[in-house]
Structure formats: C-alpha cells, structure tokens
C-alpha cells in the first residue's frame, strides 16, 4: 500500500539510486490521501520527542495548507476564519478541560 509523499521525495529516492513507483492522484483520491496523511502526521506529532516537535508541527501545517488548496481555499481565508473563531470562542491558551 502506498502513501502520499512530498513533491521532492521521488527525486530524492532517484538520487539515492532507487526508482520510485509513483502516480499522480485525481482530485478526490488526493483529498482522501491528504486526510489520511493528516492523521499520520498528527500521530507522529503526538509521539515526537521534544526536539522533533517543531518539524512534526511543520508537517501537519503543510498537509493542512494542501487540504485548504484542494478545497479551493486561500490560506489567508483559513486564518481569518480561525481568528474569528478565536475571538468568539477563545483559543486553547488557558488549558481548560471540560470534565
């Protein structure tokens, strides 16, 4: 079973002497693969040691940007919605946990 990879990975594999078996996904399949990738990256973030957290957050961020793009959303629009939700409902800064 394959997985979605970053754009430069096939070339990196070739430079290492390998021959990657890649194909370009259709839009619907791509969106599904992005959602699967989001869960993969979120799991890696959850399990990351402290010195790798920034890199894992960057991976989650990149996947979220790709999901927004495939859905026709500019990242600035997503940030504007996030700002509005934060203004109305708050963020997570206070570490509140509803029991």
Structural class designation: mainly alpha
* Oligomeric state of the chains present here: single chain
- Beta percentage is under 5%
Query: Mean pLDDT score, rounded?
Result: 97
Number of strands: 0
Question: Could you list the spans in which at least 5 consecutive residues all have pLDDT below 50?
Answer: none
For the report, how would you describe the main beta sheet?
none
In DSSP terms (H or I, runs of 4 or more residues), the helix count works out at: 4
SSE pattern: HHHH
Structure, described:
This protein has 4 helices and no strands. By secondary structure, it is mostly helical. It has a domain of 65 residues. The model has no long low-confidence stretch (mean pLDDT 97).
